[in-house]
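Protocol step 4 of 6.
Sequence for DC-UbP/UBTD2 N-terminal domain-containing protein (Carpinus fangiana) entered exactly as in the expression construct, tag removed. Do not edit the line below.
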Amino acid sequence: MGCAGSSQAKGDGTVKKIRKPKPWKHPQPITKTHLMQLRDEFWDTAPHYGGRKEIWDALRAAAEADLTLAQAIVDSAGVIVQSADLTICYDERGAKYELPKYVLSEPTNLIRDS
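Step 5 output, structure tokens:
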């Protein structure tokens, strides 16, 4: 019998279902345009943090998709989801991928552009 946390390490096929991130608040009210700029900057620079570009591409596609499609994307890319909201993931080689909440959902204090 293994310990409770050993199931992922065994590779027994358990898949963590992804879910929407919990509501969060940006330090200051932010416009949709500014949020999109932050997201674009993150995705443009993400491959420079390490890991494989194809995994970053899959994570971006998953972040921008609905939950059902996002689950299919991470499963087919071989992404190991540690945090169900996709904030912490790994690839099959063990490289860590951290996603900020602003690329996964909108803050509660989002200001609509006029």
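Step 6, annotate. The helical segments are 7-10, 32-45, 53-63, 67-77.
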